[in-house]
Amino acid sequence: MAWERIPLGARVRHRSEGYEGWIDGWKDPDRTQCRIFIHQDRAYRFAAEEDLEVCNDIAGVMDVSKLDKSLAFIIGREDFRSAPLFCTIWTLGLYHARYMLKRSRAKDLTHTHRINSLKLEFEMEGWILGMGDSDEDDVGYFYNRLHPLLKKGFPIATVPTHDPDKPNWGLVKLVRRLSAQGRIDASSCLVRSETIIQQHKCKENALNRRDTNRHLKTIRVKNEALINSKVVLLLDDVVTTGTSLMACKKLLLDAGASEVISLALGKAT
Fold it and tell me: Is residue 123 included in any domain, yes or no?
């Protein structure tokens, strides 16, 4: 059986010393020792791979064998200079952005339409494409996709929208429905304190859309007891750069979560 290296971003536990952290890189070019980031201490430790075991947190949250692994991706410091840690993001499918729909060669845009129906700011702009009789139909669509994948007994948090006065009620309803089946509704845990420029408008406003500080400075954690010492599922509607998911993961870990599994309904093309 071939030796398989522990991937970047994996949470690990030292077999003898017991400390836990995330694989953040290597000590030397030969990769003889892993560099482990201890989030609580804001410190690094080094250890050989054979002295480490992977904390398979995701197994207690969802069955990734049912997801398309080609749609998952890892972001970290090589992607964002301001990245606080590595973050693996899982997605349910592709999301074809509004300006790409006419040019998209995708045969089935149902997934994109359903996501748009959950995004209330698009409804105000008349962008809903009418894939169902009510928003509950769209909640049901994603519930039927997620419920068979997810285990029970863990909290589900959501990434707040850019505007605190415009919450994504569709996403909140989805979490409530999933939580009614033995999970914990933690959609109230992450709160945006002030409005920020939307990501697709960053360039015209001379802002770096890959800057996690935009989110770290404007989001706070409430109701910490819901996520303390627990593995949390962090849910968002669409992921483009992963900046907001990365920032929210850090905030939840700072607030006491033991690990954060990131999942987006759609991956922007």
Answer: yes
Q: Rounded to 5 degrees, what are φ and ψ at 148?
A: -70, -20
Q: Which pLDDT value is given to residue 204?
A: 60
Q: In the chain, how many domains are there?
A: 2
CB burial class (10 A; 0-12, 13-18, 19+) of residue 97? Answer: middle
pLDDT per residue as tens digits for the range 140-156:
999 999 999 999 999 99
CA-closest candidate to residue 118, choices 144, 147, 140, 138: 138
Q: Which residue has the tokens 């007994």?
A: 153
Asked if residue 16 is part of any domain, the answer here is yes
How many CB atoms lie under 10 A from the CB of residue 61?
24
Q: State which residues form the domain around 18.
A: 11-55
Assigned domain for 2 exists: no
How wide is the angle at C-alpha 29 spanned by C-alphas 25 and 31, nearest 5°? Answer: 55
